[in-house]
Amino acid sequence: MPELHVTVVGAGLAGSEAAWQLARRGIAVTLVEMKPAKMTPAHHSPLMAELVCSNSLRSDRLTNAVGLLKEEMRLLDSLIMRAADLARVPAGGALAVDRDRFSGYITKTLTEHPLITLESREMTEIPDGPAIIATGPLTSDAMSQAIAALPGLGTLNFYDAAAPIVTLESLNMDRIFRQSRYDRGDDYLNCPMTEEEYNAFVDALLAAETAEVHGFEETRVFEGCMPVESMARRGRMVLAFGPMKPVGLRDPRTGREAFAVVQLRQDNEAGTLYNIVGFQTRLKFPEQRRVFGMIPGLENAAYARYGVMHRNTFLNSPSFLNAHFEVISRPQLYFAGQMTGVEGYVESAASGLLCGMSLASDLAGHGTVELPGITAMGAMGRYISTPNRNFQPMNCSFGLIDSLPVDKEHKKIRNKAMRYEAISARSLAYMKDWIAKAGCSDACSH
Fold first, then answer.
1. Per residue in 407-443, pLDDT tens?
2. Which CATH number applies to 5-154+316-444?
3. Which residue ranges make up each domain of the chain?
4. What would the 3-class secondary structure string for 46-83 be?
5. What pTM was computed for the model?
6. Are strands 333-335 and 131-133 parallel, antiparallel or unpaired?
7. Which of 158, 193, 378, 408 pairs with 357 at a CA distance of 20 to 30 A?
8. What is the C-alpha to C-alpha distance for residues 336 and 279, in angstroms, rounded to an integer?
9. How many CA atoms does the CB half-sphere of 26 hold within 13 Å?
């Protein structure tokens, strides 16, 4: 067994990626995961890297920051990206996956790796020695207390929600048409609504009974996971300009856009399950059947999974973690995943990748990995480590990445898509050069 050893706590997206990055660099890993012995309200599968909400890893285009982040991860041999590409299901310009195939591949790869030892138990204290804590936003109470005792840390509570999943065979396809926005294929099912149907739906949604979530506060819910009923309370037209916007979708039966559209996205490889896009909710289950049954095509929908909401816990990372997710007051102790304040599957996995790569480099005597703000990964690390009085979880965006220089030689690119493509090209050129350098070659195993 190699002399170098790291404990990784949590086998979600971040922990799985961190364990992989360490092991592929020759470092022995003890991967501690409390499933299946102890499950959280959001988890249903014993597999590693379970996708508890959507099955979409969002845009795969380089005109989107998360698309750039994915490509950076692919360059660094990300296990999460390898699994996602293998388990891909149709989703237009997005990368969506078959959940079971995705998690199954990651579980098989990690359990069969000779340098990874899996321990199925709950961790209740911070490990001694080099470690990465990736217990996720549903960290157990005992582990949360141990984390809270670390010097210099404040915690904040947050909330997350999952959208319902329905079976394809239960849908009324006479009311539904296939199309992706702006003629980018036909990967989505679309349920068009008239103005009258939309208003009746909003009225029913506002009057529906919700399940209580202990300590729930609407002001502390991440915008990307806002329950659909909470969005409706912000104004009658919020949904029509949000998840139900009809823009870019032309109903072939009428030849025009509907007043509002509910989209369904394929959720498994067989194409038998679809999730209701943007419909995270805390409505009681009978209310979900009643209210969502008002959506054209979903009158008799059978639910493979109802929408749910649960508590999430996040760290107050600025002044506690540095830009490579290492605890400032305790070198070689890292935190990864959503609990650090990154938001989204890809961002969580990327933080695990950066943690694993940086800790491996440090243990090998090369020092920690520092990525600049011209890269998506570097910009993400900079965000969670920069003092911010109103720190909130954040998706990766071009607003976090360094802008292109503007001077006599470099004029501002006015077209937004072209500007984002140029930012992505700059980042990927840097990453390829960085990987090719001898110093990084040792740390990155390229």
1. 766 677 888 899 899 999 999 999 999 999 855 444 4
2. 3.50.50.60
3. 5-154+316-444, 162-311
4. CCCCCCCCCCEEEECCCCCHHHHHHHHHHHCCCHHHHH
5. 0.75
6. parallel
7. 158
8. 27
9. 10
